[in-house]
Design a protein that fits this description.
mainly alpha; about 0% strand; about 80% helix
């Protein structure tokens, strides 16, 4: 491990892992509390359309994915707010169309051989300095928004009817959480990829939820756990030449399994 720290690419990977873990801990907690896991999964896969657009038009990958993901989040928010009886249908439709669009645009890009695995399962060891800057800016934006609107988000997350009676715009914060989820998905693409990102947004949060009595505490604990899982997974993937994103999720899943066994052993529900 100490030898690997001498390499710039590994230093970038470690920093990227921490940045993504903090974002995942914060937004993952909101996703779980608001029961938006399936919606977040839809946004994650739809973001591939933005990757395809960026590649086809020669734009930065993160920029294309960010704009497209935000658009998908706004669309899903609108559809699920006004057509609640068809939520699963709309999510599946947007999900499939987004990925299909991305794949077709990549196919149409002249002379471009894209490694689909790097976007689907992550490529944290390929994170560049520019990627880190973009991740840092997005994380700063996410933290600033959550801190500024924390009381309103807390009220909407746990009792939307009471929040509405207090004059809080529930629809606005519902949409805001989805947009922040989209941004979190984008910065997690390099680390675990589109397919595995939903696990990073839920596994540490499940454990944190059992160890905390508040939303704030859940965010902190899940961010710490996510960082640990990411760094351990990164070390194992580097040592044994394994796919980093998949290894991180396996470490997270094994930790969850051991946590559940421990809780059962202790006789706690």
């Amino acid at each position: 491990m100490l030898e690997a720290l001498n390499y710039t690419f590994f230093q970038n990977a470690l920093l990227a892992g921490v940045l993504v873990s903090i974002a995942s801990g914060i937004i993952g907690s909101l996703i779980v509390v608001n029961r938006m896991v399936f919606l977040a999964g839809g946004i994650a896969h739809t973001s591939y359309g933005g990757i395809g657009i960026a590649i086809y038009f020669g734009l930065p990958i993160f920029l294309g994915a960010s704009v497209f993901s935000i658009g998908a989040a706004l669309l899903m928010a609108y559809l699920t707010l006004y057509q609640r009886d068809r939520i699963d249908t709309f999510i599946g439709l947007v999900w499939a169309c987004g990925m299909a669009l991305g794949i077709i645009l990549v196919d149409l890009t002249p002379g471009y051989n894209v490694d689909l695995m790097s976007y689907l399962f992550g490529s944290i060891l390929a994170v560049s300095s520019d990627d880190l800057i973009y991740m840092g800016l997005l994380l700063a934006f996410i933290v600033a928004i959550v801190v500024f609107f924390y009381r309103d988000i807390l009220a909407v997350s746990y009792d939307s009817e009471y929040a509405s009676l207090r004059g809080i715009n529930v629809r606005f914060f519902y949409t805001l959480i989805l947009v922040l989820s989209a941004l979190t998905v984008v910065i997690a693409i390099k680390v675990v990829g589109l397919i595995l990102v939903i696990a990073l947004l839920t596994i540490p949060i499940y454990i944190a939820e059992k160890l905390s009595n508040s939303l704030y505490g859940m965010m902190i604990i899940s961010a710490v756990l996510s960082s640990i899982f990411t760094l351990v997974g990164l070390y194992i993937s580097y040592s044994f030449n394994l796919t980093s994103g998949a290894t991180i999720i396996v470490v997270s899943a094994m930790s969850l399994f051991m946590f559940i066994i421990y809780k059962k052993f202790k006789g706690e529900s």
